[in-house]
């Protein structure tokens, strides 16, 4: 794993910046974790970032606080959606990283939204 990506994977929040059709940047703070050589994040399946990532998988990543205020310079990467088995595995990774609060949020989401209500992405550096 790239050293910068590894550093970001250790932070509590990462600012994932996706791109609209017109190239406008849309930054969103997310929870993240490390999965092998990738930084992974979890989000709702119907979120705007998922729609934007279907069209353009290029992202910028930066460490941030809960409100999305950047704490580091951005790095570039490429995001890919994980399949259902990969998403289930990453939910467990995230629940371990974020402890009881993370477990509650992640599994409540699965209960109320169903197994397809959230999706995980793996980001590799470019």
UniProtKB/TrEMBL annotation:
Cross-referenced InterPro entries: F420H2_bilvrd_red/Heme_oxyg (IPR052019), PPOX_F420-dep_Rv2061_put (IPR019965), Pyridox_Oxase_N (IPR011576), Split_barrel_FMN-bd (IPR012349)
Ranges of residues in domain Pyridoxamine 5'-phosphate oxidase N-terminal: 6-98
SUPFAM superfamilies: FMN-binding split barrel
Family annotation (Gene3D superfamilies): Electron Transport, Fmn-binding Protein, Chain A
Pfam family for this entry, one: PNPOx_N
Keyword set, alphabetical order: Oxidoreductase
Entries under PANTHER family matching the protein: HEME OXYGENASE HI_0854-RELATED, PYRIDOXAMINE 5'-PHOSPHATE OXIDASE FAMILY PROTEIN
Name under which the protein is recorded: Pyridoxamine 5'-phosphate oxidase
Organism: Kibdelosporangium persicum
């Amino acid at each position: 794993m790239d050293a910068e990506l590894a550093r970001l994977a250790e932070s509590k929040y990462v600012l994932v910046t996706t791109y609209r059709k017109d190239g406008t940047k849309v930054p969103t703070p997310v929870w993240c974790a490390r999965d092998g050589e990738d930084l992974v994040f979890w989000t709702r399946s119907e979120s705007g970032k998922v729609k934007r990532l279907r069209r353009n998988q290029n992202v910028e990543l930066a460490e941030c606080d809960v409100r999305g205020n950047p704490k580091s310079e951005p790095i570039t990467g490429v995001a890919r959606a994980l399949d259902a088995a990969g998403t289930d595995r990453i939910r467990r990774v995230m629940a371990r990283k974020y402890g009881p609060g993370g477990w509650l949020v992640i599994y409540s989401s699965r209960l109320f939204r169903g197994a397809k209500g959230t999706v995980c992405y793996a980001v590799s550096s470019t």
